[in-house]
User: Which sequence fits this backbone?
């Protein structure tokens, strides 16, 4: 247990000082929020463009923080034998993957909080309770992306991991409405994706609407499904290492 | 620690086989490694060295047979912190400093040695604050070595440890390793540099085609190869005369210096003397370990070339039935 904690702490520290990770998790979504959300004068269904993009960009950052870094790192570290070396220590079998989940959860925190802080300072006014509730939905919902990242890291050959994780990352962001509002026919399909539901549920919170049961079920199903996929890919990958 | 470990070998392989499809990487390998010694593990490419080391470390499971490390399963020995291992390449965490990395490795060991001691013993004090992924090949090897001695292990396993090191670092590395051996640790290393094996190992294990070929001291292996060399200065002898001497395998004459490879150095030399010659600067010695190694693996290949294929075919049909 202490080994898993030690590894997790170093994983978190390493992720938080990685410029590339921090760019995609924090800087890029924040700049996009300032560029689009700051000047968005439109309203959608009575929701201001600024509020929409606040949640969209916080969820975009959370998605980046939880998905791509893990996928790439796991594939690289398996290829370079770090996972093999860890098997020669007293670290418990699941310690490595546990530390990856913890590192993703840790990097997701600033990804959400920084966009929220910038939003708050540029005129989005919410009660503390709503900020916290929205944060929790984005944060816990992002576990789905963490699981997908682990599944990709273990399931996709090293050569293709970068491209696969970018496609999933960008694809989920487009269909989830992170870049622009998805409605009409596309919206009917999009609502079955986790990126759409994470964003929509958090948006429902900040616009003081009741959370959609359907949305919660879809997101929970994704979380369980992606978790099971990650577990299966992990088991397959470990036995091949 | 009330159990008396004396008498328990460091490593035993009991009829261990590892098959990859129809390829028998390791074929009924049986061997025993005593504790407290430094052992070189040699074999030509494809002899099954890496597979054997993987099984010894619990990274792969044998198809048949049993591997024990200090009387335990390899997995248990690893979890108990009994084995320190240095892999051939990779195996390091990136984007962290050497100090952070080795601190972590210490926390992953049940009985870590203090970090300051570790940095000193592995000769990595000068690079402790460098990022692991910014190190040169030789520096990375030093960090890998530090990993293998980061805890109070009983057995240190090194796979090609000095690959990529320059001569000076190689010297430093083996000095450090000798001091580990003086702490009573068993050291098992695979290497391509037979000179290293000759100089450093108390004992040498040679495997070929997945089986144990020979185990003993370097001197024993050299004599098992069945060849010695004789050299002396003598003018006016003919090739025919030298080739006619007992035991002679090959000769080389240049400027009065005669070099002979023979399977019976005494008889060869007596033959020269009995013919009335009085050679000068006589040297008689064993072959180097490298030549001995080549000789015994070639002998084995000639002897077993047909047999190994027959055996493979037999056991394959056996499986089909």
Assistant:
């Amino acid at each position: 247990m202490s080994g898993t904690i030690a590894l997790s702490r170093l994983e978190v520290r390493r992720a938080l000082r990685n410029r590339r990770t921090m760019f995609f998790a924090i800087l890029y979504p924040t700049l996009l929020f300032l560029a689009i959300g700051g000047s968005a004068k439109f309203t959608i269904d009575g929701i201001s463009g600024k509020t929409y993009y606040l949640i969209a960009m916080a969820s975009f950052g959370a998605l980046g923080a939880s998905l791509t870094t893990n996928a790439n790192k796991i594939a690289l570290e398996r290829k370079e034998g770090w996972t093999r070396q860890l098997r020669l220590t007293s670290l418990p079998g699941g310690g490595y993957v546990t530390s990856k989940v913890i590192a993703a959860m840790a990097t997701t925190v600033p990804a959400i909080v920084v966009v929220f802080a910038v939003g708050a300072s540029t005129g989005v006014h919410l009660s503390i309770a709503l900020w916290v509730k929205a944060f929790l939905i984005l944060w816990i919902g992002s576990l789905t992306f963490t699981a997908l990242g682990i599944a990709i890291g273990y399931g996709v050959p090293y050569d293709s991991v970068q491209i696969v994780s970018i496609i999933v990352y960008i694809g989920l962001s487009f269909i989830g409405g992170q870049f622009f509002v998805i409605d009409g026919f596309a919206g009917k399909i999009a609502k079955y994706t986790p990126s759409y539901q994470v964003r929509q549920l958090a948006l429902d919170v900040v616009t003081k609407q009741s959370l959609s049961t359907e949305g919660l079920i879809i997101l929970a199903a994704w979380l369980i499904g992606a978790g099971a996929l990650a577990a299966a890919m992990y088991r397959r990958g470990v036995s091949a290492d | 620690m009330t159990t008396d470990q004396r008498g328990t070998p460091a490593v035993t392989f009991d009829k261990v086989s590892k098959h990859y499809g129809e390829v028998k990487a390791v074929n009924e390998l049986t061997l025993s490694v005593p504790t407290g010694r430094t052992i070189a593990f040699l074999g030509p490419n494809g002899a099954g060295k890496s597979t054997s080391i993987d099984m010894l470390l619990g990274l792969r499971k044998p198809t048949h047979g049993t591997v024990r490390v200090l009387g335990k399963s390899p997995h248990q020995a690893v979890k108990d912190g009994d084995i320190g291992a240095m892999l051939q390449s990779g195996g390091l965490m990136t984007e962290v400093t050497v100090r952070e990395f080795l601190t972590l490795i210490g926390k992953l060991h049940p009985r870590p040695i203090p970090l300051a001691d570790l940095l000193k013993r592995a000769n990595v004090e000068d690079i402790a604050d460098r990022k692991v992924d910014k190190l040169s090949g030789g520096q990375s090897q030093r960090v890998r070595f530090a990993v293998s001695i980061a805890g109070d292990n009983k057995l240190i396993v090194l796979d090609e440890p000095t690959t990529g090191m320059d001569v000076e670092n190689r010297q430093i590395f083996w000095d450090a390793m000798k001091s580990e051996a003086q702490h009573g640790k068993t050291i098992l290393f695979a290497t391509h540099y037979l000179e290293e094996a000759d100089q450093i190992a108390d004992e040498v294990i040679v495997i070929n085609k997945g089986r144990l070929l020979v185990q003993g001291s370097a001197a024993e292996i050299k004599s098992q190869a069945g060849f010695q060399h004789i050299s002396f200065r003598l003018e006016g002898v003919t090739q025919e005369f030298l080739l006619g001497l007992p035991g002679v395998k090959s000769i080389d004459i240049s400027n009065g210096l005669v070099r002979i490879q023979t399977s019976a150095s005494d008889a060869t030399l007596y033959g020269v003397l009995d013919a009335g010659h009085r050679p000068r600067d006589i040297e008689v010695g064993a072959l180097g370990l490298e030549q001995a190694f080549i000789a015994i693996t070639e002998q084995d290949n000639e002897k077993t070339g047909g047999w190994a294929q027959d055996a493979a075919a037999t056991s394959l049909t056996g499986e089909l039935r």
Q: What stands out?
A: Chain B touches chain A through 27 residues (CB under 8 Å). Chain B has a mean pLDDT of 86. Residues 289-320 of chain B form the longest helix (32 residues). Residues 163 and 258 of chain B are 36 Å apart (CA to CA).
